[in-house]
Write a sequence for this structure.
């Protein structure tokens, strides 16, 4: 595929707002998952919560979009000079030539969860201030970002559960290749809500303690939240040191709604296609950021797929022990972690994992390592068997 | 600036008074009056019995729409990358979860939870067809059809392979119905190929436009166009039904409509 340059990028998660707090947390192997009381959940729950969302104020003209998810979207946008980079691209290309392609799994559904508790006892109606379109609808976060910048080009939300914000990179790549746009804001935003906390609990997929990816005693996810963005432009613009998206691979398990294919066939296909589109061999990949949710079946399937394709030598880890599983934002968050890893030469050691699963003899990093990288792979796999792998590369000096 | 051409290989419609493409095309050509009859959604016989019991109207609608488009193209669903697009996904299921989460017990069903993902119909499609190709699931509120057309065309060009588009919308029950009143379920399916084949029905070129939107002359159809995101496709379907070349502008996003140049 034609490579794309990540002209600007940023992320916000339980580790903090912006790149530097994340790089610091990766170097220090600091996790952000905390067991606490959250919203109206009866018992304490381990969450990767973003600090300060209650204090975020949207601009007055965007007040209709006010909800946890769009507050997180705005907080995330306003880090690392990302807004200025987008504005420069707008000046270069025009507002109609920049796409907005974001991933989210639950968008601002928390606003409808709260509104359903406040229904009129006689009529059953929702409180009049509830704004479905601007908060709960799956498109709301892309609509918010498009309005935030005053853009007039294409926009869409990809909502394929936990692969959502990896797949937007592929959408942007295709739109650029078709000549429909010159640049794209891609990324993902997903925020804590009752649907996912109770939902994953109903499937017995939530760990009572901070999650432990690839641990032999792993027992489920920790739900997290986050926002991540990249500004993508054509790869020809890239200079030494820049980060490129060089490969995308997408596949479907065609197996089960909530369980992965046991041998990880779909995961393997996505990784193979990503390598193929990047023109790379498995040995070229210096680090794999695993999907690594820490459920017994997910890690077993992904581990099998990684072993079958890469063997036991390629360094890998999941950063969900750091951030929690940010669901629809995970692909974007982990894409930016890959960009950071390339830029800083940091291979993140996992957080939370104590004893590696002996049945998954991948080269899982338990200690952070400082080492120059050239190409890295990021995996994102979701419910419904939706798989996406991305390859990022650093342009040589 | 227009794109290169994308070729329409198969087409399906399922909606109020639109039991299939042939009947819909006759209405759109004015040969039959449009009457918004209730939509009958068939059970998904392609799914195993255990899964079939778990799916509601949204999945039934998406499946029926997709299978009809694939059949019209005489294509193999297992080989087609697929693009699902819907404003609300499975709205009945979402409403049920919200009610349970607002109750004291909050005992939500694991099946309802995994059916709550926007890509649930795509997941069931994969199980039903065995297709392991790329699959995406989109939402762009009212712009959901045009967004799907762009995604499907660009996916077909990038992969060099035909792809299937399945745009479908159902309604929430109250209380969300008031905020998002979608009067009928409706699905539109298309198989699009990057190359002209013996089965190609039309060639389409896409471009963004500031021009005025095309609307439907028939008041009933125009009402649907405005009320159902999938029905934003009606002006395009109208042109396709005529069998004539032409240009049509359909609703996409504020400040950005989608123009489609149709040729033989």
């Amino acid at each position: 595929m034609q490579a794309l340059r990540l002209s600007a990028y940023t992320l916000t998660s339980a580790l903090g707002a912006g790149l530097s707090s994340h790089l610091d947390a990766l170097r220090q192997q600091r996790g952000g998952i905390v067991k606490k009381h959250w919203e109206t959940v009866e018992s304490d729950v381990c969450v990767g919560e973003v600090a300060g969302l209650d204090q975020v104020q949207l601009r007055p003209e965007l007040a209709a979009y006010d909800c946890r998810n769009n507050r997180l979207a705005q907080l995330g946008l306003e880090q690392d000079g990302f807004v200025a980079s987008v504005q420069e691209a707008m000046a270069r290309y025009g507002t109609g030539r920049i796409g907005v392609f974001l991933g989210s799994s639950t968008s601002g559904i928390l606003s409808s969860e709260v509104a359903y508790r406040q229904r009129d006892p006689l009529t059953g109606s929702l409180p009049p201030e509830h704004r479905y379109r601007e908060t709960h609808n799956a498109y709301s976060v892309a609509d918010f970002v498009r309005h935030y910048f005053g853009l007039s080009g294409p926009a869409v939300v990809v909502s394929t559960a936990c692969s959502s914000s990896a797949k937007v990179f592929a959408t942007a790549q295709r739109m650029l290749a078709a000549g429909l746009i010159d640049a794209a804001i891609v990324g993902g935003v997903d925020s804590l809500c009752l649907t996912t906390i109770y939902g994953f609990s109903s499937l017995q997929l939530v760990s009572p303690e901070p999650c432990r990816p690839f641990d032999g005693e792993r027992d489920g996810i920790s739900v997290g939240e986050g926002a991540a963005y990249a500004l993508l432009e054509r790869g020809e613009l890239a200079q030494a040191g820049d980060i490129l998206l060089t490969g995308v691979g997408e596949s479907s398990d065609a197996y089960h709604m909530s369980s992965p294919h046991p041998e990880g066939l779909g995961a393997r296909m996505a990784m193979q296609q990503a390598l193929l589109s990047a023109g790379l061999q498995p040995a070229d990949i210096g680090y794999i950021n695993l999907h690594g949710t820490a459920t017994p079946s997910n890690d077993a399937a992904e581990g099998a797929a990684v072993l079958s394709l890469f063997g036991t030598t390629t360094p890998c880890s999941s950063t969900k022990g750091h951030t929690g599983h940010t669901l629809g934002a995970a692909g974007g968050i982990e894409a930016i972690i890959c960009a950071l890893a390339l830029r800083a030469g940091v291979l993140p050691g996992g957080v939370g994992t104590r004893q590696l699963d002996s049945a998954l003899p991948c080269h899982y990093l338990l200690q952070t390592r400082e080492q120059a990288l050239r190409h890295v792979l990021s995996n994102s796999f979701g419910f419904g068997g939706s798989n996406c792998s991305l390859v990022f590369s650093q342009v040589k000096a | 600036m227009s794109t290169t051409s994308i070729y329409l290989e198969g087409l399906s419609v399922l909606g109020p008074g639109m039991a299939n493409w042939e009947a819909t095309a006759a209405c759109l050509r004015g040969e039959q009056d449009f009457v918004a009859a209730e939509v009958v959604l068939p059970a998904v016989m392609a799914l195993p019995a255990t899964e079939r019991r778990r799916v509601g109207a949204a999945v039934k609608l998406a499946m029926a729409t997709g299978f009809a488009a694939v059949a019209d193209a005489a294509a193999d669903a297992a080989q087609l990358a697929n693009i699902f697009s819907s404003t609300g996904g499975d709205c009945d299921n979402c409403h049920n979860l919200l009610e349970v989460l607002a109750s004291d017990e909050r005992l939500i069903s694991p099946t309802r939870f995994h059916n709550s993902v926007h890509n649930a119909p795509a997941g069931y499609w994969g199980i039903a067809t065995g297709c392991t190709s790329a699959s995406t699931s989109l939402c762009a509120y009212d712009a959901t059809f045009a967004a799907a057309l762009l995604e499907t065309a660009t996916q077909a060009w990038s992969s060099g392979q035909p792809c299937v588009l399945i745009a479908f919308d159902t309604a929430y029950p109250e209380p969300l119905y008031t905020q998002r009143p979608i009067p009928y379920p409706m699905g539109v399916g298309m198989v699009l190929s990057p190359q002209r084949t013996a089965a190609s029905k039309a060639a389409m070129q896409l471009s963004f436009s500031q021009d005025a939107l095309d609307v439907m002359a028939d008041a009933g159809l125009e009402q649907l166009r405005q009320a159902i995101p999938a029905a934003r496709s009606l002006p395009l379907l109208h042109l396709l039904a005529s069998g004539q070349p032409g240009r049509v502008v359909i609703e996409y996003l504020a400040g950005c409509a989608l123009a489609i140049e149709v040729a033989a």
Observations:
- Chain A has one domain: 4-394.
